[in-house]
Each structure stands twice: as structure tokens, then as C-alpha cells.
Amino acid sequence: MYRKFIATVAAASIALTALGAFPVAAGERDTAKVIAAILGLAVVGKIIHDRNERKEEARHDSKRPIYRTPEYKKPVHRVPEYKKPVHQPPRYTQPRPRPLPDRVNRKLLPQQCLRSFETRQGRVRMFANQCLKRNYKFAHRLPQQCSYVFSTPRGDRRGYEARCLRDRGFRLARG
User: Fold this and answer.
1) Domain of 25?
2) How many helices (H) and strands (E) does the chain have?
3) Residue 69 and residue 50: Cα distance in Å, rounded?
């Protein structure tokens, strides 16, 4: 408030000093010049005053934090509109084949039964007979042409030759 008052007094004093500097003349032209000079000074003073006020407001606004209470907006729950289903003729779809039941591949022999033995004729790879009876359900269906018997210091060993079984379509189960 004091700043506005001081600015007004300063503007008035400048205007009055301008009046005192002119010699008093009795012409209308001189009076019009004086009034125009006073109005010009008043306009310039007002422009300076407004500019200073804007600077001051900007200075105060930038330093002061603005605290606002948070506003809570209730969420809008929209219920979807009911759409009547459009009747369409049923499409023909090809029936899916039924899954096959889990079958045990009878041609896969257990890996743990494969052994190799040294004989007089050389190394022989064979499936041990007792191991196959314990771990292979279809041991009684193995081809008799592939059965092999040989003697060791511990006694006779019985089994099936791996090469012969392979030739007849049997494979080794991995895993």
C-alpha cells in the first residue's frame, strides 16, 4: 500500500515541477501544450506503475507454494447394454478325430537291460533275460531266433542278441 502511495506522490511531483518550469503565458496554445505534457507524464507514470505491479505479483506467485485440497472423483461404473444375439445358422465343422489311447510301444526295449559281454567269439551286446522279465511286459513275445546262451565263469547266461532284435524291428527306449 505504501508503494502505491509513494508512486502516486512521485508522479504528482513530476507533473507539478513540469508546470513550474514553463513561463506563464496568456495564450491558449501554451495552456494546451502544458495540459498535453501533464497527461503524457500521467500516462507514462501509470504504465510504469502497472509494470511494477505485474513484476511484484509474479515474484510473489512463483515463491509461494499453492496448496489445494485433493478432489475425489467417484469412478463411473457403466453397465454394458444388453445386445440381443443375432440368430445364425449353425456352421458345419468337421468332427475332430478322437485321441488315441496311450499305447505302450511293444517294440521299445528297456535301456537298463542292454549289457555287453566278452565271449570267445568277441564282444556280444545282448539284453539280459532276467532283466527283461522284470522290466518288459512283453518278454514272452520276443523272437526265439534271437535268444542266445553262453557260458561264463559264473555259469550260463541267457539273453537276446541286440543286433538280431534290431533286425526284427525292436528299438532301445531312450530316457
Assistant:
1) 2-63
2) 4, 6
3) 32
Residue 59 within any structural domain of the chain = yes
* pTM beyond 0.85, yes or no: no
Which of 133, 138, 85, 132 is closest to 113 using CA atoms?
132
Residue 153 CA: distances (Å) to CA of 44, 46, 119, 156, 160: 129, 127, 11, 8, 19
Q: What's the grid cell of residue 97?
A: 478325430
Name, in order, each residue with C-beta under 8 angstroms of 128's C-beta and a sequence gap of 6 or more: 113, 115, 157, 158, 159
Among the three residues 28, 63, 98, which one is the final residue of a domain in this structure? 63
pLDDT in tens, 61-90: 556 667 778 787 877 777 777 777 777 777
Residue 160 gets the label, from left (phi > 0), alpha (psi -120 to 50) or beta, of beta
Is 148 contained in some domain? yes
Q: How many domains does the chain have?
A: 2
Q: What pLDDT, in 10s, does the model give residues 113-167?
A: 998 887 777 888 889 999 999 999 888 889 999 998 877 777 888 899 999 999 9
Q: What does the alpha-carbon distance between residue 1 and residue 51 come to, in Å, rounded to a whole number?
A: 16
Q: How many CA atoms lie within 13 A of 40 on its CB side?
A: 8
